[in-house]
Structure to design on (222 residues):
């Protein structure tokens, strides 16, 4: 718990998109303010060795958090669906939008596996990026995020807060000046959905969430 407090009190965490499970683990978006306590996430290219090192650190951190959940609330871990199947749950490109190259992968380390997909959508000077992760009911991954949803912050620059949409817990962040934001939601403690927007209006994050078939995701393997 002390480690989570340090993260939410202003510690800067730098990780790569290649192990974006780590980025989503702490569940904060793009809201940046020099005058506020925050978590800063920076995407960068790293080697596979770096990625697996970060993955291992995330696993160890998650093990510490897992002691805070009643075992009766935990579901049995499952094998992640393939990233090819996960692609089917990404939203179709809306009219007037184009897409960038689709990304997807399934990664495994020391008995932990994660599938993830990512698609960016472009319209003039706007960019929306949707990522979906299969966290396989692994408490070492989802518990730190759930704990982070208890933290909220708002200022003249924007906000970064825990939210609940359709009974799904998450975090939402938006910067009024840069018009950047993110919406992160955890479906049934398994599927993590991240929606990031650049040069967007605040309402657009939730509009894009409606394009995700969360009901179908919650029924996978049930």
């Amino acid at each position: 718990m002390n480690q989570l407090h340090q993260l939410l009190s202003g510690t800067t965490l730098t990780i790569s998109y290649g192990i974006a499970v780590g980025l989503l683990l702490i569940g904060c978006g793009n809201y940046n303010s020099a005058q506020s306590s925050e978590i800063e996430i920076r995407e960068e290219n790293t080697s596979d060795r770096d990625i697996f090192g970060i993955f291992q650190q995330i696993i160890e951190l998650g093990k510490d958090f897992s002691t805070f959940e009643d075992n009766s609330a935990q579901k049995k871990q499952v094998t992640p669906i393939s990233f090819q199947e996960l692609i089917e749950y990404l939203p179709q490109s809306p009219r007037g939008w184009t897409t960038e190259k689709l990304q997807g992968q399934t990664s495994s380390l020391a008995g932990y596996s994660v599938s993830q997909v990512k698609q960016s959508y472009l319209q003039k000077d706007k960019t929306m990026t949707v990522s979906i992760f299969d966290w396989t009911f692994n408490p070492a991954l989802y518990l730190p995020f759930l704990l982070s949803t208890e933290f909220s912050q708002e200022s003249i620059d924007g906000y970064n807060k825990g939210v609940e949409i359709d009974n799904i817990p998450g975090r939402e962040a938006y910067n009024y000046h840069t018009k950047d934001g993110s919406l992160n939601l955890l479906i049934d403690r398994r599927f993590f959905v991240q929606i990031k927007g650049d040069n967007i209006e605040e309402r657009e994050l939730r509009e894009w969430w409606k394009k995700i078939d969360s009901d179908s995701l919650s029924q996978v393997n049930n």
